[in-house]
Amino acid sequence: MDLPYRDNVGAVLFNPAGQVLVARRADLPNAEGAAGGWQLPQGGMDPGEDPSVAVFREMEEEIGTARAEIIGEHPDWLTYDLPPELLGKALGGRYRGQRQKWFALRFLGTDADIRLDLDPHPEFDAWRWAPLQALPGLAVPFKLAIYTVLARDFARFATR
């Protein structure tokens, strides 16, 4: 298929202890320890939307808060391709994968600010703080390369 990539933003949200927020996909509720059941907040960009604005909108939509500040931005747009069994199905069937701009953010709120119950059809049903280096072990195989890059390139933000 000759499909385009969907523009997307992602948030690596760091708490004061240097851990990152990961959330469990609601469509995979039994994936407690399985790779792919947990992911970072991310989402599609609106046409013409600035990525640094989109990342806050997506956090608000997915985790119920945008109480954060940008402390870093990955210099590259990172891409992944969907596996063949998801082509034509995932992402509305219109994309081959996603082209993502990733941001490191410092969380300025409290755990009580993280609300997965505000959306009537939430993407996530649970969340937790995890070590940044755990990201590759949480990723679905087709996102493994991106999560490995993020764990390496954002390591400088994983400090107290």
From TrEMBL:
Top-rank EC class of the record's enzyme: hydrolase
SUPFAM superfamilies reported in the protein's UniProt record: Nudix
Enzyme Commission number, as recorded: 3.6.1.-
PROSITE patterns linked to this entry: NUDIX, NUDIX_BOX
Domain of life, per lineage: Bacteria
Entry cofactors: a divalent metal cation; Mg(2+)
GO molecular function term, any single one: hydrolase activity
Family designation: Belongs to the Nudix hydrolase family. RppH subfamily.
Name used for this protein in its record: RNA pyrophosphohydrolase
Organism: Paeniroseomonas aquatica
